[in-house]
Amino acid sequence: MSEIKSTLELVLEKTRDMTLSREDKQEQLIREFREKVNGLLHAYLEGLASLDQFQRQFSSLEAPSGSGPEKILAEEAAQRLELPGDNDKLLEVLSRLCGVKLDGVESALCDHQQRLRALEKERAEVMCKALKERFHVHGRAVRANLEGDSGWVQTLSEAREAFLEELKREVLSQIGS
Description:
By secondary structure, the chain is an all-alpha fold. It has one domain. The chain is built from 7 helices and no strands. The protein starts with 6 loop residues before the first helix and ends with a helix.
């Protein structure tokens, strides 16, 4: 009579001779380190830890060899910056723990906010013009519903991606990627 094997036993049997390459192991270690950094950042941003506690916990993490822990922290912190939003804690992390000079970062934030305002104004004008031409609805009381416009949502997403790339370049240029 044959033995019934569990799914886990079958998987283990099939993968018994498989091993991770050196690159795969390194990628996995970096991914795990990023997850730990994100957990610490989340606790700090939620007020569950002070900056000093965050710094101690971050320093106690074992960074994978060949990766700069400050670089990873800077990338993860920069990824969380939002407009509009309160970015003070993230900017403090970038400044105090990563050694980033905030002039360029704050300039990028300001530029992005101005771009968003310009895009918002432009899109609202296009939508109001379309309302006027298509439905003959116009006047001072007419307001464009940008949140309900899929084109606006797409534009916001693209603007955010461009902003994050610009911010990442600014931050990493100071860390020495």
